[in-house]
Amino acid sequence: MNYKIKTKGNDLILQIPKTELNIIDTLDCGQAFRFKAIDENEIAGIAFNKYLHLTQNESEITFYNTTETDFENIWCEFFDLNTDYIKLKKDFSKDEVLKTAIEYASGIRILKQDSFEILISFIISQNNNIKRIKTSIDKLCKLYGNEIATDCYTFPTIEQLKDIQKADISELGLGYRDDYIVDCVQKLVAKEIIIEDIANMDLVDAKKELLKIKGVGPKVCDCVLLFGFYKTECFPIDTWIKKVLAEYYPNGFPTEYNDVSGIAQQYLFHYMRTKQNK
DNA sequence: CCCCAGGGTAGGG
DNA sequence: CCCTACCATGGG
Fold first, then answer.
1. pLDDT of residue A276
2. How far is the CA of A140 from the C1' of B5 (A)?
3. Dihedral of the alpha carbons of A191, A197, A198, A199, in degrees to the nearest 10
4. pLDDT value at A278 more than 50
């Protein structure tokens, strides 16, 4: 990690340019669903069973009530701080479209999130919109997670969800995705799929495992592998990326980025989805 | 009323 | 292999 940290009372300060980690763009660009922006430079939410409250200026991020131990054990990896995004973005910027998307939101990084949380979240995401995905996940956490602060709930564990039936989660408003969540939990509880093992599999086997779950197709599978297992060669193609490919890459996405195309994908996704409103 | 959303399944050709 | 109707729900 090339960035300096210091403590200030109970808070921890990370010295990093906003162009290398923008907390709002990163936490609220559709890869995570549990953070809410408070204003332009402030955001809070829950990840890895911890409540995280951040503010930011051009050169520093303040992690409120955060120990150095938690930073080193959790947040350093969570924000992918050991990857050189300056080099990545330099390579990406040889491509004009990517260059535009990166200039639009250069502080996006891929979050290394909990694989079970990502699996459930992206099953919910199918043919759905981000606002509604967040609402459903919030309800799931409130119903089955632990309250770690006032009205702040952890994402439930497999154990906490092990007995759920379709009727139990009808209030989440998932529609037909009820069955998919139940099927997923049941396969994990039965150890038909062992989620920890997927991290050590090659891509072909990992995909084969995830595709056993109802409601997991190629796109959800790629999202789970990218956001939940940091398989950066996975390039999820949703409705927005379909538009990107149709509009800007009629001859296909450049193969030279194959091993990190998933990271490039996130800049393109965010650009395409939000450029009109900014 | 319409269309759309970080798509997938089942069923038919 | 490909194609497509259908799938609940809420936001715009």
1. 76
2. 20
3. 150
4. no
Enumerate the nucleotides of strand B whose atoms come under 7 Å of any protein CB: 4-10
Exposed/middle/buried for residue A171 (C-beta within 10 Å: 0-12, 13-18, 19+)? exposed
Q: CA–C1' distance A270–C7 (Å)?
A: 27
In this complex, the answer to whether residue A217 has its CB under 7 A from any atom of chain C, a nucleic strand, is: no
**Spacing of A95 CA from C4 C1' in Å:** 36
Average per-residue pLDDT for chain A: 97
What per-residue confidence (pLDDT) applies to A277?
A: 60
Helix axis angle, A261-274 relative to A96-104, nearest 10°?
60
Q: Phi/psi of residue A143, each to 5°?
A: -75, -40
Summarize pLDDT for A48-74 with one digit per residue, the tens. Answer: 999 999 999 999 999 999 999 999 999
Q: Which nucleotides of C are covered by protein (CB under 7 A)?
A: 7-12
CA distances from residue A87 to A22, A31, A84 in whole angstroms, order as listed: 17, 22, 6
